[in-house]
C-alpha cells in the first residue's frame, strides 16, 4: 500500500501507533524507522529513494527474491475462486492438496504428511504438541520433556521461546515453561578449540546424551535443533555432530526434530539443512522460504514413523483457523515450484553458493578483527574479535556487532548482527555479479569498522 505521505509523516505515525518486534521503542523513535517501500530481486528501496542491498532476504525468508509478478497473480486468482475455507473436520480444498503433494515430492524420502501453520513459531508449537501426543497415544504420557539448545532460536510464542535458548527472551514472561531442557550449542570456536572440529562435534553430541541420561530416557520426548543455528549467529556444527546426535536419539528412543525454518527451501544448497548436515529427523518444522515471505504460512513435515501413529491415534486436538489457508497455500505452491523448476535451489548448490563462500572468505579472511569466517550455500557469518591471534572476543558481547551492522545499514547494505556474529543470507536468486556488489560494499564497511575500533581503543 502506497499512501501520499512524506517520510517524516510515516515516521511520526509509526512512532505514535506501532510497537515493533524486538525493538526498544525509545531508541527507535529518537532516530525514526527507515520506511521501506519497494523491492526487486535482492534490492529494496526506502522512502527517500535509497537503493539497499538486502543481504538478509528480509528475515532469512525472501528466498525467491522481491518483486515476482507471478505470485500476486496466483494470489489474486485464488482469492477470486476461494478466498478462504478451513481444513478442520471433513473439508479440504485444491490449493492445500496440491501444495501437500508438491511438498511431499521435494521433501526427503519418508516425509509424506504435512500439517499447516501460519509461521515458524506456530510450526514449533505444533511440533511440541505433536511429539507429546505421539508418545501419549502409545501409552507413554510421561515421555514429554523436550531438549533444545542454549542460543537456539525457535520463535516467540510461549512454546517456541521456551524451547529456544535465548536467555534474554526467557527473562521476560517467566520462561521456560516446565518440561523444557537445554544443552550447550555446538560452537567450536567458543567451546572446542582444544580439539579438532570433528572431535568437538562428537563431544558436543555427548552433551545431548548426558542430558537424556540426566532427565531419564523414559521422560524425554524429543531433541530439537536447527541444522545450522541461524539467529544464534550461523553456528555450523562440525560434520560429526548431527550423525552422532541421530545415533544417540535412536539409542534412547528419543524423537529427533530439525527446525528448518531458516535452513529449509534451498538456503544451504540442498532443499533442507538436514541433507547438508547429513541426518534424518523424525519431524521437521518450516515456514519462511515456503512462501518466500509473500504470505504467512508454515508447515510441519511428519515422517512415516510419527505419521503412522498419528493417523491411527484419533483426533489431534490442534489447529489454526488459517491452517492451510487457500491463498497462502496457492502462493507457497507457486513459490516452491519456481524454486524447483527455475533451478534456483540447484544454482545455490552448484554455482552461487560455492561462489559466495569463496568470495566471503576472500573478502573477510584478512581483517584484524574478523575470525571464524564460515558458511555454506547462501548462509554465512563471521565473528568480530578483539584479538585474532589469541581468539579473544570483545568484552561486551554485542557492542561491536551493533556498531558494524549500523555501518552496513548507513551504507545501504542489510546484514545482521547476532551479538558479535555478523551474518548474511541473501535471496537465493542473487547473481555472481550481485555477490561481488554486496561484498564490495561489505568490505569497505569493514575497513571503516576497524578504523573505528582503533580510534575507540577497543583493539586488543
Ligand atoms: N525457528 C527458527 C529456526 C527461526 O529462525 C524462526 C524465526 O526466525 C522461527 C522458528 C520462528 O519463526 P516465525 O518468526 O515465523 O514465528
TrEMBL record:
One of its GO terms (molecular function) is transaminase activity. Its cofactor is pyridoxal 5'-phosphate. Signal peptide: none annotated. InterPro entries: Aminotrans_3, Aminotrans_3_PPA_site, PyrdxlP-dep_Trfase, PyrdxlP-dep_Trfase_major, PyrdxlP-dep_Trfase_small. Keywords: Aminotransferase, Pyridoxal phosphate, Transferase. Transmembrane segments: none annotated. Belongs to the class-III pyridoxal-phosphate-dependent aminotransferase family. PANTHER family: AMINOTRANSFERASE, AMINOTRANSFERASE CLASS-III. This is Putrescine aminotransferase. It comes from Gulbenkiania mobilis. The lineage of its organism: Bacteria, Pseudomonadati, Pseudomonadota, Betaproteobacteria, Neisseriales.
Amino acid at each position: 500500500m502506497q499512501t501520499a505521505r512524506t517520510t517524516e509523516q510515516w515516521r511520526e505515525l509509526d512512532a505514535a501507533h506501532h510497537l515493533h518486534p524486538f525493538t526498544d521503542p525509545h531508541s527507535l523513535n529518537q532516530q525514526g524507522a527507515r520506511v521501506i517501500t519497494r523491492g526487486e530481486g535482492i534490492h529494496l528501496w526506502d522512502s527517500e529513494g535509497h537503493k539497499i542491498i538486502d543481504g538478509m532476504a528480509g528475515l532469512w525468508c525472501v528466498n525467491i527474491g522481491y518483486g515476482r509478478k507471478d505470485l500476486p497473480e496466483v494470489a489474486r486468482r485464488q482469492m477470486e475462486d476461494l478466498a478462504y475455507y478451513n481444513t478442520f473436520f471433513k473439508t479440504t480444498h485444491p490449493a492445500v492438496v496440491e501444495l501437500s503433494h508438491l511438498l511431499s515430492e521435494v521433501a526427503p524420502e519418508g516425509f509424506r504428511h504435512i500439517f499447516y501453520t501460519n509461521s515458524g513459531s506456530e510450526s514449533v508449537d505444533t511440533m511440541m504438541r505433536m511429539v507429546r501426543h505421539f508418545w501419549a497415544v502409545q501409552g507413554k504420557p510421561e515421555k514429554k520433556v523436550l531438549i533444545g539448545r542454549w542460543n537456539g532460536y525457535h520463535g516467540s510464542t510461549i512454546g517456541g521461546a521456551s524451547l529456544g535458548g535465548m536467555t534474554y527472551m526467557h527473562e521476560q514472561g517467566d520462561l521456560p515453561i516446565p518440561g523444557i531442557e537445554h544443552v550447550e550449542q555446538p560452537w567450536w570456536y567458543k567451546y572446542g578449540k582444544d580439539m579438532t572440529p570433528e572431535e568437538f562435534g562428537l563431544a558436543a553430541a555427548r552433551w545431548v546424551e548426558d542430558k537424556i541420561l540426566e532427565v531419564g530416557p523414559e521422560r524425554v520426548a524429543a531433541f530439537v535443533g536447527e541444522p545450522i543455528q541461524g539467529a544464534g549467529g550461523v553456528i555450523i556444527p562440525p560434520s560429526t555432530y548431527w550423525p552422532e546426535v541421530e545415533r544417540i536419539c535412536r539409542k534412547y528412543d528419543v524423537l529427533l526434530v530439525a527446525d528448518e525454518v531458516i535452513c529449509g527451501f534451498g538456503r544451504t544448497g540442498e532443499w533442507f539443512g538436514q541433507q547438508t548436515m547429513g541426518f534424518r529427523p523424525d519431524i521437521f518444522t518450516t515456514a519462511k522460504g515456503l512462501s518466500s515471505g509473500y504470505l504467512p504460512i508454515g508447515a510441519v513435515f511428519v515422517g512415516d514413523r510419527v505419521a503412522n501413529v498419528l493417523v491411527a491415534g484419533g483426533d489431534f486436538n490442534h489447529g489454526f483457523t488459517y491452517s492451510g489457508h487457500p491463498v497462502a497455500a496457492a502462493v507457497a505452491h507457486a513459490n516452491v515450484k519456481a524454486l524447483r523448476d527455475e533451478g534456483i535451489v540447484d544454482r545455490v548448490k552448484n554455482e552461487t553458493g560455492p561462489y559466495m563462500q569463496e568470495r566471503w572468505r576472500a573478502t573477510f579472511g584478512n581483517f584484524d578483527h574478523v575470525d571464524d569466517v564460515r558458511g555454506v550455500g547462501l548462509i554465512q557469518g563471521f565473528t568480530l574479535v578483539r584479538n585474532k591471534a589469541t581468539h579473544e572476543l570483545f568484552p561486551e558481547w554485542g557492542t561491536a556487532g551493533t556498531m558494524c551492522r549500523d555501518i552496513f545499514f548507513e551504507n545501504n547494505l542489510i546484514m545482521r548482527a547476532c551479538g558479535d556474529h555478523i551474518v548474511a543470507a541473501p535471496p537465493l536468486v542473487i547473481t555472481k555479479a550481485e555477490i561481488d556488489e554486496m561484498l564490495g560494499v561489505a568490505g569497505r564497511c569493514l575497513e571503516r569498522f576497524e578504523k573505528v575500533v582503533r580510534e575507540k581503543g577497543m583493539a586488543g
